Amino acid sequence: MPTVLVHGRFTFYFYANEGTEPPHIHVDAAENSAKYWLTPIELQSNRGFRSGERKEIERILKDNRALLLRKWNEFFLSSISDRT
C-alpha cells in the first residue's frame, strides 16, 4: 500500500494489487475513506467524508494530480516490467 502524499490530516495512497484499474487514489482521514479516479478527477466511492471535506480533497487532488499520476505510473509500469 504505497503512500503517495500526506496533506494535513489526509493520507493519499493506492493498493499494489489495483494496477489493472484506471489510475485512482484512495484517501483516508481518521475513520473516513474515499476513492477517486484521477483521469478525470471523479469521486468513485465515499465512506464518511462530508461535502466540504470532499471539496477540500478534490482541491488537493487537482493541485497534485501530476504527482499522483507520475507515482501511479512509476509504480505500476515498473511492476509490469519486473514481471517480464
3D structure, described in words:
- 39% of the residues lie in helices and 35% in strands.
- The protein has 84 residues and is α+β, with helices and mostly antiparallel strands.
- The protein has one domain (3-83).
- Strands 1-2-3-4-5 form a five-stranded antiparallel beta sheet.
- Strand 1 (3-7) and strand 2 form a beta hairpin.
- The longest helix has 33 residues, at 51-83.
- The two termini are 22 Å apart.
Topology:
Layout: E1 3-7, E2 10-13, E3 24-29, E4 32-38, E5 41-47, H1 51-83
Antiparallel strand pairs: 1-2, 2-3, 3-4, 4-5
In short:
The chain is of the alpha+beta class and about 80 residues long. Helices cover about 40% and strands about 35% of the residues. The protein is built from one helix and five strands; from the N terminus they run E-E-E-E-E-H.
Oligomer: single chain
Mean pLDDT: 93
Into which percentage range does the β-strand content fall?
25-35%
How helix-rich are the residues, as a percent range?
A: 25-40%
What brief labels describe this structure?
84 residues, alpha+beta, 5-stranded antiparallel beta sheet, 1 helix, 5 strands, globular
